[in-house]
Recover the amino acids of this structure.
């Protein structure tokens, strides 16, 4: 599909014809949920994975895709992006932005409504095998709700996997402002919001009749926090310093929340409690520069957490580097993690953290057919995506960048 | 600018200004400040035994790739590269089986030391944004040798960096070419004999930062460069005339114009932050107007659009593998940039501009190489290793002494655990001028800055 003349950047996914199947044949399958399958076949039908294995009967009329010598994995899932939300964010020159910077408590704010399916960032991420992503709000003590999307479609509704997929909170350096400039203040305020959300739910009548003291947030925001209090919606807490992570763990215990840690630069120092509480850590594997937010940064953070039994999710949250997700996972291996575990950090582990592992994250029957065929080891720099399927549909491997390459590969360009 | 008059005659050493022969500390009451040592290098190579690395794959960055090769270096210089040889007495012998050896990596674009970790506002020393033209400032006067980014970059195989002022200004000041070694002062790190660079910036940054007082447009950017160099032309003429025939009237010393005049004299190399193809073409014309040549464009995300012009003018391009989309002028970045430059015969360099990226310059070069190959552009491993060794050495004007593994060159050498173009490989040993400055297997050879003491454990997490 490379070099296709078709400018098909916002991939439309026409509903698959009923019963139409695609069989990817002969590759080495890495299902993540189980051991690799040499010379395997994977059958995609109606947007789902219909069969995976070494001896699969290929139905008549199925489109056959030869993957001999190639590696087949689930599509990569990136849990910390602004894909579809932002472009050109540097030096205060944000040209498109949909992540709401006003205010501190914005639990009711969902980025989903502002997503741009035509964003030129999306095809670029796709070219590196990323098929699903969380679009995440970023500023405030409670920045709002993240949306989980598949990276194909022309409308938000078409792309959405889940919204909200998670609520965000910030107990790192970034949340201090909400606490009057102090970390302790931020913790206090977050606890108060959660307490008030609980009280609001219990006393809605009183609230409507104004027979309740003023609460710490608006009714919409307190309402939006109810699924968090019921532990149905994960609360991803941005926390890097050990003590901030410990605060998050304590709040989670107190309010019986389901949390994940976003950032987690010093999480290796709290690995055992994180493992015991089954809290996933969504981290940047390449972070090792000391800051006063977290002096204990080290490159083997992910490895140490994994060894302690923590579920690790790899991310690359700098907007200019979303596409480097697999390089980040490759570096996890460089820094001591097993290859299988590293692949997990960009497939099944993020699906689990976002509570969609029943549908995403591995090559298993019944799961959504997000599948990538690679020229070789997906974590290695020499490999590239050969074919990419989202919801069972092959997506052309083109972007604005491939168009620019086509124009300028011979100079002067032929216009 | 304060005004000084000098009544004494001038020593003829001005011709070697910058690499000054005047001995340190000697009384120089008779000369002008302009000809005295200008913050000279006090670099001193620590003594270290000769080293023989045997049976490794050696990427020389000089056209040859040796399998089962050996390299011997002693007294800071490469003695031989090629077949196995007898180790001299006292030599350290390193078994290179399965390992790769490359020249030390060189980053043409670093703000390490001038934007030091831990990144407090008080360490923001890279942009003198008080005026659009600040040719008088020198990055080395901001550089903090205790920046904890330094040992992290060393662990990535970096031996030399160009520390640059930021890009807020049209003309941001002088850069410094530094050896990446433990040091108490920046002078100890200064690469002996390396010319200064002049940081210039095109496009969005200067016009945004200086919008209130101007420049506020790209056309005013160009007017700003032209005005500065027009003034420098006059200054240079006055000084050159005076130096030829010293009279009673000593010309006024102006630090800003002194720097720009040295660009016109060819003693300072222009390092030009410039993203867009059309603006790079303007800057090449600016050079023609005033008689200098940009040595390297930096960032140059659109260099591939004018690769032929860059090749024609022998201007290098220091590029990222794939940064794009973070501002308008970076919108058209593509991963094949370096490979397309290579294809056109232009000089490609992979730079970092980042304390993160500098730790993995080999990985960015790898991705740029493979992006090219995937697009059908032939790039050899030797060419790609030059993107982070020999070519940056040329851009910094130090290619006669480092950047390749050849007999007689300074022994800046990295031993890798495997192919440096693999994500899984690590720099295991880094020799800076023959001195083992990093050894992954020995925590005692993993230098920590003062800042690291008491805040991190030795030997972890690199």
């Amino acid at each position: 599909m490379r070099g296709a003349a078709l400018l098909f950047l916002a991939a439309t996914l026409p509903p698959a014809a009923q019963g139409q199947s695609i069989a990817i044949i002969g590759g080495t399958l890495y299902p993540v949920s189980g051991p690799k399958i040499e010379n395997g076949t994977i059958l995609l039908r109606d947007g789902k994975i219909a069969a995976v294995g070494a001896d699969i009967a290929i139905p008549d009329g199925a489109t056959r895709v030869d993957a001999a010598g190639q590696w087949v994995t689930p599509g990569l899932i990136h849990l910390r992006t602004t894909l579809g939300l932002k472009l050109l964010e540097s030096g205060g020159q944000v040209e498109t932005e949909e992540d709401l910077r006003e205010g501190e408590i914005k639990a009711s704010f969902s980025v989903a409504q502002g997503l741009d399916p035509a964003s030129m960032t999306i095809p670029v991420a796709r070219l590196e095998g990323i098929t699903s992503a969380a679009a995440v709000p970023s500023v405030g003590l409670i920045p709002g709700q993240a949306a989980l999307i598949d990276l194909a479609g022309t409308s938000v509704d078409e792309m959405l996997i889940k919204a909200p997929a998670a609520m965000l909170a910030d107990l790192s350096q970034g949340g201090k402002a909400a606490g009057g400039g102090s970390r302790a203040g931020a913790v206090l305020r977050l606890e108060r919001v959660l307490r008030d959300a609980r009280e609001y739910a219990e006393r809605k009548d009183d609230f409507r009749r104004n027979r309740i003291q003023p609460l710490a947030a608006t009714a919409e925001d307190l309402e939006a926090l109810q699924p968090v209090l019921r532990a149905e919606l994960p609360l991803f807490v941005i926390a890097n310093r050990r003590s901030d992570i410990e605060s998050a763990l304590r709040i989670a215990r107190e309010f019986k929340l389901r949390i994940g840690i976003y950032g987690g630069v010093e999480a290796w120092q709290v690995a055992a409690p994180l493992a015991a509480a089954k809290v996933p850590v969504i981290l940047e594997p390449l972070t090792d520069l000391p800051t006063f937010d977290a002096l204990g940064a080290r490159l083997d953070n992910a490895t140490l957490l994994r060894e302690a039994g923590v579920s690790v999710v790899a991310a690359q949250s700098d907007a200019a580097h979303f596409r480097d997700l697999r390089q980040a996972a490759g570096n996890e291996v460089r820094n001591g993690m097993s290859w299988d575990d590293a692949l997990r950090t960009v497939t099944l582990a993020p699906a689990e953290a976002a509570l969609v592992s029943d549908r995403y994250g591995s090559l298993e029957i019944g799961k959504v057919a997000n599948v990538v065929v690679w020229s070789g080891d997906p974590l290695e720099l020499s490999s590239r995506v050969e074919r990419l399927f989202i919801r069972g549909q092959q997506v052309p491997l083109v972007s604005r960048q491939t168009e620019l390459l086509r124009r300028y590969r011979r100079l002067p360009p032929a216009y | 600018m304060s005004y000084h008059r000098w009544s004494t005659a001038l020593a003829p050493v001005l011709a070697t200004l910058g690499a000054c022969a005047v001995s340190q500390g000697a009384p120089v009451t008779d000369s002008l400040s302009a000809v005295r040592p200008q913050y000279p290098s006090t670099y001193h190579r620590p003594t270290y035994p000769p080293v023989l690395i045997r049976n490794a794959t050696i990427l020389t960055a000089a056209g040859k790739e040796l399998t089962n090769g050996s390299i011997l270096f002693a007294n800071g210089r490469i003695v031989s590269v090629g077949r196995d040889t007898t180790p001299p007495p006292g030599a350290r012998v390193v078994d290179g089986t399965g390992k790769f050896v490359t020249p030390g990596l060189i980053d043409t674009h670093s703000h390490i030391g001038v934007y030091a970790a831990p990144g407090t506002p008080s360490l923001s020393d890279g942009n003198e944004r008080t005026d659009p033209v600040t040719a008088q400032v020198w990055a080395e006067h901001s550089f903090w040798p205790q920046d904890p980014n330094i040992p992290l970059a060393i662990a990535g195989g970096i031996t030399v960096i160009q520390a640059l002022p930021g890009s807020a200004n049209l003309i941001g000041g002088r850069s410094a070419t530094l050896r990446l070694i433990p040091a108490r002062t920046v002078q100890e790190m200064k690469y002996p004999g390396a010319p200064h660079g002049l940081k210039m910036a095109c496009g969005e940054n200067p016009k945004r930062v200086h919008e209130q007082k101007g420049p506020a447009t790209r056309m005013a950017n160009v007017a700003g460069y032209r005005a500065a160099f027009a003034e420098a032309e006059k200054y240079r003429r006055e000084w050159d005339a005076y130096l030829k025939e010293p009279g009673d009237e000593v010309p006024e010393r102006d630090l800003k114009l002194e720097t720009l005049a040295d660009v016109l004299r060819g003693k300072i190399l222009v390092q030009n932050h410039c993203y867009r193809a059309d603006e790079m073409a303007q800057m090449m014309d600016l050079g023609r107007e005033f008689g200098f040549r940009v040595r390297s464009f930096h960032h140059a995300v659109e260099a591939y659009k004018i690769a032929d012009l860059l090749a024609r003018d022998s201007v290098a391009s220091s590029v990222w593998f794939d940064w794009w989309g973070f501002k308008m002028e970076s919108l058209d970045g593509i991963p094949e940039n370096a490979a397309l430059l290579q294809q056109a015969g232009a000089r490609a360099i992979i730079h970092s501009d980042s304390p993160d990226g500098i730790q993995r310059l080999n990985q960015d070069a790898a991705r740029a190489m493979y992006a090219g190959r995937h697009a059908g552009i032939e790039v050899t491993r030797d060419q790609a290793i030059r993107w982070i060794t020999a070519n940056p050495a040329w851009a910094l004007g130090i290619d006669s002494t480092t950047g390749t593994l050849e007999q007689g060159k300074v022994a800046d050498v990295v031993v890798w655990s495997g192919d440096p173009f693999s994500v899984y490989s690590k720099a295991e040993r880094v020799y800076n001028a023959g001195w083992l400055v990093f050894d992954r297997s020995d925590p005692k050879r993993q230098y920590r800055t003062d800042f690291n003491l008491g805040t991190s454990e030795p030997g972890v997490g690199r």
Notes: Chain A has a mean pLDDT of 92. Chain A touches chain B through 49 residues (CB under 8 Å). Residues 303 and 337 of chain A are 5 Å apart (CA to CA).
